[in-house]
Prior knowledge:
By secondary structure, this protein is an alpha+beta fold. The protein has 6 helices and 10 strands; from the N terminus they run αβββαβαβαααβββββ. The protein has 2 domains: 41-196, Nucleotidyltransferase, domain 5 (2-Layer Sandwich), CATH 3.30.420; 211-262. It catalyses: DNA(n) + a 2'-deoxyribonucleoside 5'-triphosphate = DNA(n+1) + diphosphate.
Amino acid sequence: xxxxxxxxxxxxxxxxxxxxxxxxxxxxxxxxxxxxxxxxxxxxxxxxxxxxxxxxxxxxxxxxxxxxxxxxxxxxxxxxxxxxxxxxxxxxxxxxxxxxxxxxxxxxxxxxxxxxxxxxxxxxxxxxxxxxxxxxxxxxxxxxxxxxxxxxxxxxxxxxxxxxxxxxxxxxxxxxxxxxxxxxxxxxxxxxxxxxxxxxxxxxxxxxxxxxxxxxxxxxxxxxxxxxxxxxxxxxxxxxxxxxxxxxxxxxxxxxxxxxxxxxx
Length: 265
């Protein structure tokens, strides 16, 4: 009997494939050329959170610039708020840096892959890269980021035994700290400096969850009442240059510039 040694080249073994299928290797670098801010935006959604935030939110939306690693976090009650947050992020980047967004990378979830989102991207000439199903490593920057930020936020809450509904406050502050921390990806520069061109001021940074004494307005106290009330520090307000705190009496997040920190707590 003559044996054709070349016949194996055309033999396909289904059982072998089922038993030995491996994950395809991921490219070491993005195929999108990243030269400037806005060339690549990486986005991801985390949620639903097991506990609604103090504002009723259950989802975290992050947008990270591939050039500077600068991240902006938004919160929402449902996943379908992704497009509105992306529009807000696009405006922020244009206003702060003068750059337009050129490409977006996300997973293939319905919050990104739908008619409204596709129409908006096409109208603005924004290229959309989607990762393959069950391949989160293709969206590595954002996947790692969300995991790191949420883990830090969780640790912040645990450290001071704070209620879980403050998770969004903790995530916001963790993002604020991340943007002001040097990173090897930028050769020791901070994302904030890379994004804005200015070194960040870190004199306002304090430990999340410590006691904060907030001045009571003169119109809301008598001459014999205390001038300050004790609350819980939860972050900073970039808009008003004030500190955010949790008022345990009213169960609200409020802001004030007139505060004293109790670093002992």
